[in-house]
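Q: Got a minute? One more chain.
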Amino acid sequence: MDEATTEVLERIDKRLAAILAILLDQHLRSTDLAKPRPRSIDRLLTDVGLSGVEIGRLLGKSPQAVSQALAKNTVPRRTAPRKSASTSKAVGAKKTARPGRSASRGRSAGDR
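A: Always. Here it is, folded:
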C-alpha cells in the first residue's frame, strides 16, 4: 500500500474507534452495567487517540477550545505530601531521653 492509502485507513480507524467508544460509553451509562468515570466528549475522543485538531473538526470547535476543555476537565494527580528534612526522622534512629528522664520508661530518676 502507498502512504496516501495508509493515512486514509488510519483516519478511518481513528474515527471508527471514536464512534465505538461513544456508543459503548452511552450503552454502559444507560444500562448501568458499569459505572464509567465522568468525562467530557473531548476527553473521551482524546483517550481514543484523536488529536485536538481532529476533535475540533468533528465537534465544530477550534483546536484552542478543545485544549481549554481538556485542561478544564483534567484531574490533578494527588501526590504524597513532602516532608522537610528537619521534620522527618531518620530510619533506624535511636530515641534519646529528654534531660531528667529515663530512656527506658520515661520516668525521671527521682521517680524510681
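A: Helices lie at 3-31, 41-48, 52-59, 63-72.
Q: Perfect, thanks.
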